[in-house]
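Hi! If you just cloned this repository, the fastest way to understand the data is to look at a raw example. We've pasted two of them here, unedited. The first protein comes first, obviously.
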Amino acid sequence: MLEVYKKLLVLVTVIASVVIPTYSMSETKETITIINNGKAGGSFNARTLMYKEGLAEAGYNVNYENIGKISQAVKMFKNANTPTIMVFANIMVYKQDLFHTEENFIMLEYQQPLWICKSNDATGKLDVLKVAHGKTYNPEILKKILGNNIVLVPYKNSGAMLKGMLGGDVDVMVNNQGKSLKYLATGKGTCTPSDRLPIMQATVIGKNVDIEKMRKVLFDISMNIKFIEYHNKRQLKRPSGTWANELSEVQTHEKSWKVN
């Protein structure tokens, strides 16, 4: 009887080992920090939230740092000693002293020309024009292209610029394609893509991460329906090519934002 009991106990143990999963440390959820450097209403904030949601759905434990200010976010990114990612753009590199390299470049999400919108009320205006621009834009480049008979008015993000234009607080805005098309649709002014301002490229950068792995994860997230709708609505151009080619293109265009 004792022998039968021992055999049954062995059998139960074997079945339990098959039915009940055992978890090793390697199967523990990976933790990643995503830094939000944008404010509500802006494209950086919107994209960060979509990546945050996508990473959580992909099985990551996401540590969300809602900073909302680019200078503080860049400082946090530079000082990070754990896996960290952040949306970024080539228009920011010189002002923030953070450039795209083989060590931090994950992907080029989209690229677009910057647009210049002018209100109907400002047409023919001889006074100094108030020009809205993003805080990260280099004012010296804007002055070179738009002239000196302007007053530059920095805004926290693209959404705030659009509100400023609609409210009549400024005469002109230099904004991204999405917000410019929105303004154009109101009939309150004209908007045209600039062929003189450097092209704007939206990127994702990382630190302390497996770049190759994170590149695939984030690319897959950027191809989900939310991202596709976001890009299509704003007529954003998605890049194609190898990551090395994308990095080379970003590094080439970011040099255009340097003031000589």
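Ok, and the second one:
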Amino acid sequence: GNPYEKLSEGARERIQERVDAFHEQFAASVARNRDMSVEAVNATGARTFMAQQAIDNGLADEIGALDDAITAFGATLSEGDEQMAELTQVDLDNSKAAGKAEGLAEGIKQGAAEAMARISAILGSDAGKTRPTAALNAALKTSMSADEAGA
């Protein structure tokens, strides 16, 4: 639609679809955050409530000042900081070293498995069976892939 002509039925329907979609998102968000069903949220009819009515309808927890709510919320954000403060630099360094050692061991294991598969592929190829000495040399003394060694 635009301000210079009457709203067409198609435009009205598109706008209504968006309004309905926003309503569904909002109702789902309220339901999730207030531990309510979407049906219960929709049953409020999108009305506004006085403070006590909002509590009675499960849409608020208590009546209070905005500054108090913000302060309380801020306190919940810093609660996790205490656990982080208990980790010392030594603990962090030890964790990093253990992770690095674990990664290195896994890398060595994976590399060995890939090398064994490469050697087996070279020695087991048709070219490897007809020229075993050349295949053994290619498998053990080069970094050629199985495809390159068989060519």
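That's it. A detail worth noticing about the second one: The chain has a mean pLDDT of 89.
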